[in-house]
From TrEMBL:
Pfam families: Rhodanese. This is Rhodanese-like domain-containing protein. The keyword Signal applies. SMART domains: RHOD (SM00450). Keywords: Signal. Residues 1-30 form the signal peptide. Residues 49-141, 166-252 form the Rhodanese domain.
Length: 255
């Protein structure tokens, strides 16, 4: 009987110790929890219905000046303290923050700083500016928005050499439609159509070079611009027509 009593007593003490350990750990877990998120369509509806909330662009001020969501204010991560007065006085007011998509951490950094400043109703628009723009939702465009960019183009010979010698360091992306990809694409390419490129770009690793191509350059130029806005550091463009003209092969696949 005494042994049973000792067993029960030790079990209760063990459970109590476990409870205290979990109780101590809970604040750390809560502090690291993800912020709530909002979809593109819901955020669009919120803006159209003129709901009361503050929209924060957490990208750099230069990016904000090029283009931003309607009614957004600019509070870059590194300038939070300087611009905190732009946030509402009511610490419980709804604040939605965005940056350059799912792989951009700037909106979460600003949200964390706002949380530390006492704000309690913080939501992240995770898709960010590139997807919003891709969906054709309203933006405020500055004079630099339509400025043409110079892409880093690869010749067919350069691309062939990369695929032969450094394939693991790059991702080759065919940005044409699915049926065009099936009819003939460069071996090793993946297919992400240009019209949904930003929305599906999460599969592309930022630590690798990204090579985008299409038939003649228009759609791959668009994808290249989106990659720039998504802050990919190493981007290249190739042209399928030039690849074929050089006599290099394409492969077919099933839809």
């Amino acid at each position: 009987m005494k042994s049973i009593t000792r067993f029960v007593g030790s079990s209760v003490l063990s459970l109590l110790a476990l409870f205290l350990l979990l109780a101590t750990a809970m604040p750390a877990i809560a502090a690291d929890a993800e912020f709530k998120t909002v979809s593109s369509e819901v955020l669009r509806d919120m803006l159209e219905e003129k709901r009361a909330f503050t929209l924060v662009d957490a990208r750099t001020n230069d990016e904000y000046q090029v283009a931003h969501l309607v009614s957004a204010i600019s509070i870059p991560d590194k300038e939070f303290e300087k611009n905190i007065a732009l946030l509402p006085k009511d610490k419980g007011a709804l604040i939605v923050l965005y940056c350059n998509g799912v792989k951009c951490g700037k909106s979460k950094k600003v949200a964390q700083k706002a949380k530390e400043a006492g704000y309690t109703n913080l939501v992240i628009y995770a898709d960010g500016f590139p997807v919003w723009e891709e969906k054709g939702f309203p933006i405020v465009a500055g004079p630099e928005y339509a400025k043409k960019i110079d892409t880093r183009k690869l010749s067919p010979v350069q691309l062939k050499q990369i695929l032969a010698e450094k394939k693991d360091a790059y991702v080759l992306v065919d940005v044409r439609d699915e049926f065009e990809f099936a009819e003939g694409h460069i071996d090793g390419a993946i297919n992400i159509p240009a019209e949904s490129f930003a929305a599906k770009s999460g599969v592309l690793p930022k630590e690798k070079g990204i090579i985008v191509y299409c038939n003649s350059g228009g759609r791959s130029y668009s994808a290249y611009r989106k990659l720039m806005k998504l802050a990919y550091p190493s981007i290249f463009q190739a042209i399928l027509a030039e690849w074929k003209d050089a006599g290099f092969p394409v492969v077919k696949s099933k839809l």
